[in-house]
Amino acid sequence: MKKRNAASMALVLALTLVLGVLGTGCGATTQEKREVNVYNWGEYIDTDVLTQFEKETGIKVNYKTYPTNEALYSSLKSGGVSYDVIIPSDYMISRMIQEDMLDKIDFKNVPNADKVDEVYRNPEYDPTGEYSVPYMWGTVGIIYDTKVVTEPVTSWSILFNEKYSGKILMFDNSRDAIGIALKYLGYSYNTTDKDQIKEAVDLLVQQKPLVQAYVMDQIFEKLTGGEAAIGPYYAGDAVTMMEENPDLAFCLPSEGSNIFVDAMCIPKGAANKEEAEEFINFMCRGDISAANCQVTGYSTPIGEAYDLLPEDMRDNTVMYPDKETLAKCETYTNLPQDILDFYDEEWVRLMTD
Amino acid sequence: MKARYISVPYVIWMALFVIAPLILVVIFAFTSEAGGFTLEHFARMSRYVGIFANSLFLALVATAICFAAGYPVAYILARKESVFRRVGMLLIMLPMWMNFLLRTYAWMSLLEDNGLINRFLTFLGLPGISVINTDGAVVIGMVYNFLPFMILPIFSVIEKIDRRTIEAAQDLGANSLVVFRRIIFPLSLPGVLSGITMVFVPSVSTFVISRLLGGGKTLLLGDLIEMQFFGNAYNPYLGSAISLVMMVIVMVSIAIMNRFGEGEEGAMLL
Questions:
Q1: Where does the chain cross the membrane (chain B) (predicted)?
Q2: Which of A272, B121, B187, B210 is the most buried (most CB within 10 A)?
Q3: How confident is the model at residue B261, as a pLDDT?
Q4: Are B17 and B146 part of one and the same domain?
């Protein structure tokens, strides 16, 4: 659910065209050597885990990263690439299931999937639970500088408070930004009512003069360096930022927020399906998942891994908020195409205002 | 004859990575989501007029500044033989050895309200500047990144001007201003034109600079195109159509400029 930087986007954009021409890409190889092509978010794994997997199984891991769900979608859609394991977020998984882009996982080969907590089984985005195995989850909340914001922060309203004009950052992606306004207004993230979306964007238009910048990754530097004072971002990254600047604090707003799950899937036509399943199985092991969580700061869906975490991480309410607040959080589901188009249109309206 | 074979790898490269993608862009631009022929994407273009205008305007401003700042530098360097020229050229090329994105990120830290420039100004007791996240910062980013592309072509053209032409003009009584206006400047026009092209084209299509230095508050053409591929809707057809319109606008303006350039040269010959 993290978005990674613009340069890789530019590269993907260029490659989209180029690979479209080449078309073929790398087909299946029937060599003796077993391998698995893994495509994950940037900085979303403990890389030692990959070496350990190679050592234990003898399967070579070709590891690549993507910056956004949309970039992943785009590169799969334009063809010419072949991956065996991908880790999209909830709403993107449901979109890919709808568009028949994923293969069913053979759970006989993934016994460790049983370790996944009951709460994360058969989720809304994959109702039959046949296509995905949860990798990590997290929430979106407000990160703020306690030296500037001395009042208690409990609500999204702080992002619309004129007192902090010029110190506020917002998401530079329409789903997250419009989502915040929708939640603040008391609507669902997944509303398909155009009037509600329009109302939310109207609110963002009003907010625009207060906003210092619309950012993704740049939020790290701007918040830890004191350039800005308030901004919404992902909980896992909040942990990283708070380690760097102890003045920062995190709040999961009382109106509720977004809870996201990134899950491992096998795209249709994967050349090494068996190896992919072996990889997924490995990633569900308690010690492995715990190692990944400690490096990334995101939260594990595997109870066994949670128990292995150091105490201060287990008690960290940023990573593991209390059940009551979590109950108010909502996942993104895939929106129908006309609403997705409408999101882009409304985003253009906000940006050209 | 041999030279023709040597160029084969480049021709293949061009065909695969320049011509073929261009053809794809054209095909995509006229394809509807359902797969048939359509002009619908172009009909939608009217709503983006503001973005087109803003992008063209910012790119023009950046190009004008690059020309105003770059021409004198190119002129001085071209007319000075010596260490001075070599050091000058090195300094102009040096930033280009670093990654484009890193350089732009560095400008972000420089221009921020708590950035280096402002801290320095406060240190001197001067009032700070507030440039970051404005169109001004975007123009600064463009000028900084693309200035060498203005200087280099002008430099190489002026350097090649036959000294005897200048001497002849001087012998005929032209003072240095007249020599510049009637001889050097007209002869350097091809360099100026390619400099303008090489600054204007990347400026008009950039999206990283506006995102990092403009604070993502304005949408430029590059952002708009990127959004079609990596936004919510995934509409490569509309993205291609916008790219195509942008390319046509750029090509037309270059053609007009070249026409204008030829006129100048013709006038000079007369």
A1: 12-31, 51-77, 89-108, 128-155, 234-256
A2: B210
A3: 65
A4: no
